[in-house]
Write a structure and sequence with these properties.
Two copies of one chain form a homodimer. With about 525 residues, chain A is of the alpha/beta class. The first copy, chain A, is built from 19 helices and 13 strands. In chain A, the strands form two sheets. Chain A has a seven-stranded parallel beta sheet, with helices on both faces. In chain A, strands 10-9-8-11-12-13 form a six-stranded parallel beta sheet, with helices on both faces. In chain A, strand 1, helix 2 and strand 2 form a beta-alpha-beta unit.
Chain lengths: ~525, ~525
C-alpha cells in the first residue's frame, strides 16, 4: 500500500545510485584537501567527477586516476605561484608588523590585485577555449561543486546551466555570504572574522564590529563593481554581476560547525559541515610509534605550521626549538628547513607527518598549530588542546575561537620568546580545563545527527536529484537592500506621521487665529 | 588507535541507550497526537516517559500503560472544556463573519481570557501541590518536553532545574519565537501567520506585514506583562518573566519543514521536524477497501474536517453533500452529525477514518481538509492534492501555504456553495498541475537527510546526554532590543556626525565673522 516511499527511493536509485556527473572548480592548498575528501566520497558513491584546473596548480594532483581532469594552459608556472604565495607568507609573518598602516594596506592591495590578475588569466583560459566550453556543455553535468577561492566557477555553472554548490570557510567580513547569499548577520552579536571578539561584545566592540561590516560591504561593492562585474560581463557577453551569479548557489557548504562557530542565524541552504575530512587514527609508522612510546607518561606534542610553511628564519626556529627542549614531553615537528642549532634530543623533525594519526594517538598531549581549519578540526575530532601560532588569513580568527572556548592558548609568531611557548605548552597540558574544553567541543562534534561528510554528499546528491534546491532559497534575493531592511516602509510611515502632525499643527494655528485673531488685532489697534 | 569515537559511542549507550527519564507537559487535540508520536519514539528507545496532565483533559488517554501519569485535579470537567472549545469553534465557523470588527475583537479577547484562566487553574493545581513538586524534584528528570499550548511547563522545568525542549507549530505572529526565542524574522519577506501573503510581497503587503508584527509584539508584551509575569512571579516566589523563562529552551522543535514553509532565516536551535507522525499506509478494513475498489478508475475522495468537528448545521451539511454527489469519484466522509438529506450514493459517512491509510491508498485522488497541520502533512507525505475548507486558528494560513505552492484550492466554509466545491474538486483532480505540485512537495518531504521523528528524538536525547544544548543558543538573548538592532551604535554615530557638523559650521561662522566682520561693520557705519 505504501507505494510512494518505494517509488521515491527507486527514483533516488536511478537518479544518483547509478552515478551522476559532477563538475568541480577547486581551490588550492588546504581548500583542495578539504574538497578532495568530498570528491572521494562522491566517487565512492559511484559518481563521475571531472575537475577543471590549470597547468600552474600547486595542489591538485592531476595524475590521479580517480577523477577526470580538464587542465587549462596558463602563461605562469607552479613555481611562479608558489613564489607569490611564499612572498605573501613572508610579508605576513615577518614584515607586516613593522610596516605602517598605509604601507600594509598598499601591500595587501598589491597582493589582492596580483591574485585577481592570476585568477582572471585562468578564467580567460577557460572561456576563450570554445572547444572545451562546447565539450563541457555536451556533458550535461548534474551539479557543479565550486570553491570560490578562485572566481569564475559560478559563471561557468551559469553558462552551462548547471545547478551549483559553493564550498567555503568564509569570505572576508562574511561579505559575500551576506551580500550575495543573504545570510543574516546581526553585527550586535556576530563578530566579524578578523577581530578578536566573541559573540559577547561590549559597546565599543559592537561599534567597531558594525563599522567593520560596513567597511567590508563598501569594499566588496567597490571591488566587485570595478574589477569583477565588467570582467564577468565581458566573459558572459551580456551584462552580468558577480554577486547576482553567486546568489544562484543552491547550497553553501560551510567548513565549520557549532563546535567551532559562535551560534548565529543561518539560512536553510547554509549547511555547516566542518571537519568532514576527519577520521579515526590509523597506526603510526613503526619508528615513529617507537619514539612516541618512549615518551612514557609525559606523552608527546605534535607540531605543524601547515603544508605552506617549509622553513623559518634561523632566529625564529631557534627560539621555538629551545622552548621545545624545555618540556618533559617528546615533540614531533613537521619542519623541512635547516635544523635549528638549539634542537634538543626530545624533538624530532619530519618533512611530513601523519597528522591525523598522531593527533588520534593516546599519548598526544598537545598540538602546536598555525590554526588552519583542517588541522584545528582534527584536534577537535580527537580532543587535543592546542597552542596556536597563527600566521595569516583566517588563522588568528580560528585560534581566537578555540581560545575563547577554552581549548587553546594563542601566541604571536613574530614576538613570542622561548619562555612564552614553554609556558603555553605547560598550561594546555597541565591545566585540566583545556582538556575538558576540547573534549566538550569534541563531544559536540561527534554528537551530530549525521556525519559532516555524509551531510555534504547528501546535499550534493539532493541537488543532482532535484536539479537544484530552490525550496531553500530565500526571497530576500529579490529585494533591494532598502526593501530588505523595510526602509521604504519606515519612510512611508514617517511621512504619514509627519503629514498628520503638519495637518494638526496647521489646523490648530488656523483655529487659534480664527478665535483670537480679532481680539488680538483689536488690542493692537488700541 | 581510534579511541575517542569508541569512547563517545559508549558514552552515548550508557547515557541514553540505557533509558533516561523524560517529563512531558503536553497540549491537547492535534497537538497531543503529534507529541504522542514523539513519546512513542522515546519509549521505543527505552526511555521512561512521565506525563503531567489534568482531570479535564479532552485528549490525553491517561489509561495508557506505556507512560506514567501525574494527573492534576482541576475544578472543571472534560465536558466544560469541550463545551468551551465547541463554542469557540461555532463562533469562528458561523458567527464571526457576521460580527463587527469590535465585536469579533471583544469575543476573541473573551476566548483568550477564558483559556488563560483555565490554564492558570492547571498551573496552580501543580505548583500548590508541594508533595508532587517534591516528588518531581526527586526524580531528577533529564529533559522536559513542553507544548506551550498550555503555559507553565517552562516554569516547572526552571523550578526543577531540568533542561527543556519546546514543541510547537507557531505562536501568533511568531511573537514568542521572535521575542523569547530571538528568531530573526525580516518582515520584508517572512509573511505573518494569518495573512494570505507569501514570501513575495508588494509594498502594501510589506507595510501591512510590518505593522502586523509590530502589533503582535505590542500585544504579546502587554498580555505577558499584565497577565503572565505577575502570575509566574507569584508561582516562582521571586521576580520572574515568562519570556525570560521560555528563552531558556534548549531546542525549539517546529512542526513544519521546507516542504511547507517559505524559506526563512532560522537559528541553530530551531529544528524543523514537520510530518514526524507520517508513516506508510496500512491495508484498509475489508468493507472500506471494497468500497474504494468499486470506485474504478475515477478513484476516491477522502473528506475530514478533523477530530474537533462532530457536526455541521443542516444547511452547510446539505450544501456539501449535494456537491459530493455531483463528482464521479466515490467519497469517504468522516462525519458523525445527522445524515444530510442530499447525501448521494457515492458518499459514505464514517465516525472515524484510518486517514493516513486512506491518503496512502493508490485510488485516492483528492483530500478535502480543514487544513490542520497533521492531516496536511499526511497529504504531503502521500502526495494527495487538497481542497481546503479552513475553519479556525492556523488552518487558513496552512492552506494558504498549500494554495500558493500549487497543491490546493481553498474555499470559504461559511460562504461556499455546492458548485464551488464541485469546481474545486474537479480542478484539483483533473488539472495535473495540482498533482505535480503536491508530488514536488512530497519529494522534498521524503528527501531529507534524516526522518523528522528521528531528528526530533535525536535532539531530545542530545539534550539528555549533554544536559542542554547551550552551544546552539545565540547571545542575542543577553542583548536589549535596541542593542540587538544596533540602535545605540546608530545613535552614537549620529551624535558624532552631528557634533562634527556643528563644530565645522561654528568654525566657519567664526572665521567668516573674523574676516568679514570688520568690513561689514565699517560698511554699516558708512
Amino acid at each position: 500500500m505504501h507505494v510512494l516511499p518505494v517509488l521515491l527511493s527507486l527514483l533516488c536509485l536511478t537518479a544518483c545510485g547509478d552515478g551522476g556527473k559532477v563538475l568541480v572548480w577547486p581551490g588550492e592548498f588546504s581548500h583542495w584537501l578539504n574538497m578532495k575528501t568530498i570528491l572521494d566520497g562522491l566517487v565512492d558513491r559511484g559518481h563521475t567527477v571531472t575537475i577543471i584546473t590549470h597547468t600552474a596548480t600547486p595542489s591538485v594532483a592531476t595524475n590521479s586516476s580517480k577523477f577526470n581532469f580538464e587542465i587549462l594552459p596558463v602563461p605562469f608556472t607552479q613555481e611562479d605561484l608558489n613564489k607569490h604565495f611564499d612572498e605573501v607568507l613572508r610579508y605576513w609573518m615577518y614584515d607586516m608588523a613593522e610596516d605602517s598602516f598605509l604601507g600594509a594596506a598598499m601591500k595587501i592591495k598589491e597582493i589582492v590585485d596580483t591574485g585577481a590578475e592570476q585568477n582572471k588569466v585562468v578564467c580567460r583560459a577557460l572561456f576563450s577555449n570554445k572547444g572545451l566550453m562546447e565539450k563541457l556543455k555536451q556533458e550535461h553535468y548534474e551539479v557543479m561543486l565550486i570553491d570560490p577561492m578562485w572566481m569564475c566557477g559560478d559563471l561557468l555553472a551559469q553558462t552551462l546551466d548547471v545547478p551549483f554548490i559553493l564550498t567555503l570557510r568564509f569570505t572576508f567580513g562574511n561579505a559575500m555570504e551576506r551580500q550575495c547569499g543573504q545570510l543574516p548577520t546581526p553585527p550586535s552579536y556576530v563578530p566579524g572574522i578578523g577581530f578578536e571578539y566573541t559573540d559577547q561584545m561590549d559597546f565599543a566592540q559592537r561599534l567597531k564590529n558594525f563599522l567593520f561590516y560596513l567597511s567590508q560591504d563598501i569594499l566588496l561593492h567597490v571591488m566587485v563593481k570595478i574589477k569583477w562585474d565588467p570582467f564577468y560581463t565581458e566573459l558572459a557577453g551580456k551584462p552580468t554581476e558577480l554577486c547576482d551569479v553567486l546568489s544562484k548557489a543552491d547550497i553553501w557548504l560551510i567548513r565549520t560547525y557549532w563546535d567551532f562557530e559562535y551560534p548565529r542565524p543561518l539560512l536553510p541552504n547554509f549547511k555547516f559541515v566542518g571537519g568532514l575530512h576527519c577520521k579515526p587514527a590509523k597506526p603510526l609508522p613503526e619508528d615513529m610509534e617507537e619514539f612516541v612510546q618512549n615518551s612514557g607518561d609525559d606523552g608527546i606534542v605534535v607540531f605543524s605550521l601547515g603544508s605552506m610553511i617549509k622553513n623559518l628564519t634561523m632566529e625564529r626556529a631557534n627560539t621555538i626549538a629551545s622552548a621545545l627542549g624545555q618540556i618533559p614531553q617528546k615533540v614531533i615537528w613537521r619542519y623541512s628547513g635547516v635544523k635549528p642549532e638549539t634542537l634538543a634530543p626530545n624533538t624530532r623533525l619530519y618533512d611530513w607527518l601523519p597528522q591525523n594519526d598522531l593527533l588520534g594517538h593516546p599519548k598526544t598531549k598537545a598540538f602546536i598549530t598555525h590554526g588552519g581549519t583542517n588541522g584545528l578540526y582534527e584536534a577537535i575530532y580527537h580532543g587535543v588542546p592546542m597552542v596556536g601560532i597563527p600566521l595569516f588569513a583566517d588563522q588568528p580568527d580560528n585560534l581566537n575561537h578555540m581560545k575563547t572556548k577554552g581549548a587553546a592558548v594563542s601566541l604571536d609568531f613574530s614576538k613570542m620568546e622561548s619562555k612564552d611557548l614553554v609556558e603555553a605548552l605547560n598550561t594546555v597540558i597541565n591545566d585540566p580545563s583545556y582538556k575538558e574544553s576540547i573534549m566538550r567541543l569534541s563531544r559536540i562534534h561527534h554528537d551530530q545527527p549525521m556525519k559532516p561528510l555524509d551531510e555534504a554528499v547528501f546535499w550534493i546528491e539532493f541537488v543532482m536529484r532535484n536539479k537544484g534546491a530552490k525550496h531553500l532559497r530565500v526571497q530576500a534575493h529579490n529585494l533591494s537592500w532598502y526593501q530588505y531592511h523595510c526602509l521604504d516602509v519606515f519612510t512611508f510611515l514617517l511621512a504619514i506621521v509627519g503629514l498628520v502632525i503638519f495637518i494638526v499643527v496647521k489646523s490648530c494655528c488656523f483655529c487659534f487665529r480664527k478665535c483670537f485673531g480679532k481680539s488680538l488685532s483689536k488690542k493692537k489697534t488700541q
